[in-house]
């Protein structure tokens, strides 16, 4: 019997087997997961980005629903950020990043969410770096 047909016939069995295997070795598998994904991503970056763009184009309504759901969940989990963001909306941002001078993807950066009116203009990249540094210091 060809492997494919054999697999089709015993699909449920395999699925159950894989599930049990995963549950039994969860810790080990989860430890390896991000590493594999990262390596795979670095190797196939261009292809993955292209594929994602295609997917968004052809599934725009599903993507929008998922995006909205994600935003809602984010707002529920980070209420102080949302309040700070809405207060800071009134403040105009500068026309370039205050760290590197880039004019692309400009964002408002809060140093503290309990002081929502103190912001700086940063590009997306420097913004990420700032937040990662703060996270590391804590
Ligand atoms: Zn920058």
Give the gist of this structure.
The protein is mainly α.
- Helix-strand pattern, N to C? HHHHHHEEH
Which oligomerization state do the chains in this entry correspond to?
single chain
Please give the order of strands in the largest beta sheet. 1-2
* Inertia-based shape: elongated
The percent range for strand residues is 5-15%
Number of strands: 2
What binds here, in terms of ligands, is: zinc ion
The biggest beta sheet reads: 2 strands, antiparallel
Alpha-beta content class: mainly alpha
- What distance lies between the first and last C-alpha atoms, to the nearest angstrom? 59 Å
Low-confidence stretches: none
The helix tally amounts to: 7
Radius of gyration, CA atoms, in whole angstroms: 22 Å
Give the key terms.
single chain, 138 residues, mainly alpha, 7 helices, binds zinc ion
Explain what you see:
Helix content is 69%, strand content 7%. The chain has a domain at 87-138. The protein has seven helices and two strands. A two-stranded antiparallel sheet has the order 1-2. The mean pLDDT is 86. Bound molecules: zinc ion. Zinc ion binds at residues 97, 99-100, 102, 122-123, 125-126.
Give me the secondary-structure topology.
Layout: H1 3-9, H2 11-24, H3 26-43, H4 45-58, H5 60-77, H6 79-88, E1 106-110, E2 119-123, H7 124-137
Antiparallel strand pairs: 1-2
The structure holds zinc ion.
């Amino acid at each position: 019997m060809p492997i494919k047909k054999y697999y089709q016939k015993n699909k449920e069995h395999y699925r159950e087997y894989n599930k049990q295997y995963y549950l039994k070795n969860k810790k080990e598998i989860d430890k390896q997961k991000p590493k594999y994904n990262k390596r795979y991503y670095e190797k196939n970056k261009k292809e993955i980005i292209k594929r994602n763009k295609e997917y968004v184009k052809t599934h725009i309504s599903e993507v929008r629903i998922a995006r909205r759901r994600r935003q809602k969940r984010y707002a529920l989990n980070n209420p102080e950020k949302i309040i700070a963001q809405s207060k800071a909306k009134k403040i105009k941002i500068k026309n370039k990043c205050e760290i590197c001078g880039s004019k692309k993807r400009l964002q408002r950066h809060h140093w503290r969410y309990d002081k929502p009116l103190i912001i700086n203009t940063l590009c997306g990249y420097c913004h990420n770096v700032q937040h990662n540094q703060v996270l590391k210091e804590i």
